[in-house]
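thought: fold this chain, then report.
action: predict
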Amino acid sequence: MKNVENKVIIITGASSGIGEETARVLAREGAKVVLSARREERLKKLADEIGENAAYLKSDVVNADEMKALVALAKEKFGKVDAVFANAGIMPAGNMSELKVADWNAMIEINIKGVLNTMAAVLPEFIAQKKGHILVTSSRAGTMSVPGNAVYCGTKHFVRAMLDSFRSESIREGTNIRTTTIYPGAIKTELLNTVAESEAKNMVSQFYENVGLTSDVIADAVLYAVSQPDNVAVPDLVVCPSMEG
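observation:
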């Protein structure tokens, strides 16, 4: 596809779901993908499937040094970085009155600090070359209030506000770094596996089973954003089932 072929794109959270399918879709269109996740066996399997246009590094977004190593791998293997898709995230739900402080902190570490670590690793490259594209997975929870998921909702609102503010900074600084925040609705991924068993989870799981979309719809959204001409910005993309209110 025009403006995708030979682009070098880093993807975090690439061992399953949205990240895994996005790697396949982008590689199919001629991109070179650099994969990151904590599950090395899955990464290797995906990279082997894609072939010579894939590289991978077992890495954790909460570790800033490992994110820098990921960028270094992309440059060593493919010579540059054109875009990064910060997709890793978790969603352990629960009312705040349950005081699941460990879960709160885990979401802050991965959903917020993980995105910042990924950006911090790649920004020196983008600033130096005066171009680049940062895509981040938020959630429809980043556009509304969600009882029973307040901290997760807060982390996804952070992504929305931070990336929008950064985009304005890049325009003023003339670094030409595009941003895209993606807000998935009910997508069938392993994300629900991080939610503790409860009646609420059972209801959500049933809704996902009945109307949830597969990960390829988000992969196609990423492809759409990445494929746009360099002077076209796609700051926000909401993708959800037509039956989702």
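thought: worth noting. Strands lie at 8-12, 32-37, 54-58, 83-86, 132-137, 177-184, 236-239.
final: tokens above.
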